[in-house]
Amino acid sequence: MQHNTNTISIQDYLPHRAPMLMVDLILELSHQEVKTILDIKKDNVFVENDVFAEIGLVENAAQTCSAIVGQSFFLDDNQEIKQDIKVIGFISGIKKVKVYDLAKVGDVIQTNSVLVSRFDNDSYSICTMSTETYVEDKLIFEAEMNLFIQEN
After folding, report:
1. Measuring CA to CA, how many Å separate 45 from each of 33, 51, 109, 134, 142?
2. What residue spans define the domains of the chain?
3. What distance lies between CA 74 and its chain's CA centroid?
4. What confidence tens digit (pLDDT) does each residue in 102-144 have?
5. Among residues 116, 152, 2, 142, which one has the least CA distance to residue 58?
6. Tens digit of each residue's pLDDT (9 = 90 or more) over 134-147
7. What is 8-151's CATH number?
8. What is the Cα 96 distance to its own chain's centre?
9. What's the distance, Cα to Cα, between the start and end of the chain in Å?
10. Per the record, a Pfam family (predicted)?
11. Can you tell me the distance from the alpha carbon of 51 to that of 57, in angstroms, rounded to the nearest whole number?
12. For residue 101, which of 138, 49, 55 has the smallest C-alpha distance?
């Protein structure tokens, strides 16, 4: 896995934990875009016969996308991590998905996502995200999905 000096721990922005955590690190994060990486390991729940399954790509993309909206739930006004925040989130719709290839054990995938639209309420957010996943410079997956995230 590549080492980056300016990375952000994804656990600061998502409630997911192993074995369902499908992002290792956030490389870049703004209110409009996010870039993440995941090292595909043999013990990943979505790996079968040394191949990372399509559903793993979908879950990786959803977790990457939710980091943008997650900022508003997990960070306070001073950009400090809030403690004991509990959220629930799910994919409320997939508008399009294209799988061109699958990653294999030992590959590092990079997922880049862009916020298309967002609606915020006092306790929940709904957003549409566009996302692409690469192995090195090869596009292997792209999707547009809707996410629903709510504080419990």
Report:
1. 27, 11, 16, 20, 21
2. 8-151
3. 15
4. 999 999 999 999 999 999 888 888 999 999 999 999 999 999 9
5. 142
6. 999 999 999 999 99
7. 3.10.129.10
8. 17
9. 35
10. ApeP-like
11. 11
12. 138
